[in-house]
Design goal:
Elements lengths: L2 H4 L11 H11 L10 H29 L7 H6 L10 E2 L8 E2 L2 H7 L8 H10 L7 H18 L6
Protein name: C2H2-type domain-containing protein
């Protein structure tokens, strides 16, 4: 079947009139061939429909990219924000008979128990209240056995 029998003039035929070749040469500079016939309108409509679809896809992509960005933090606002963390550690009062657990032990010893900050007993109580690092379990067991042996050796023999 030839193109003339189909009535489809969308294919390029070099045997057609010479005028169409001059139009095509002017369009070839842009890299597009001009299509003649009734199908021009249909092609234009399809192209516009495709561009609309592509444009909507691009806008969706832009919107999605904008929504997924990390928000900026203002350095000035972050710098002015105050930290409310309390760095005082709760400690038990080392005085015999006092079961207070306080965050400011020096103030407690001065106000409740009436110690002077310069006294040696005040300083000894503060050093006693410092947290001691916990020793490994194996070392604790060795010390416990040594204390038990020492106690057995120092005790007087029991009478029978």
């Amino acid at each position: 079947m030839s193109c003339e029998e189909d009535g489809d003039e969308s294919e390029y035929n070099p045997d057609q009139d010479e005028e169409s070749s001059s139009d095509e040469s002017s369009d070839k500079s842009s890299g597009h061939e001009m299509v003649r016939g009734d199908s021009d309108e249909e092609i234009v409509e399809e192209e516009s429909a495709n561009t609309n679809v592509n444009k909507s896809d691009q806008s969706k992509k832009k919107a999605a990219a904008a929504g997924n960005r990390k928000g900026k933090t203002n350095a000035d606002e972050h710098g002015q924000k105050r930290c409310n963390k309390d760095y005082h550690k709760k400690r038990c009062c080392p005085m015999v008979g006092c079961s207070a657990v306080v965050k400011r032990l020096p103030a407690h010893l001065q106000t409740v128990h009436g110690f002077s900050p310069k006294s040696s007993k005040y300083k000894a109580l503060l050093s006693k209240a410092l947290p001691q690092p916990k020793r490994p379990y194996s070392v604790q067991m060795i010390e416990k056995r040594a204390a038990a042996i020492k106690r057995i050796e120092t005790e007087p023999p029991m009478p029978d």
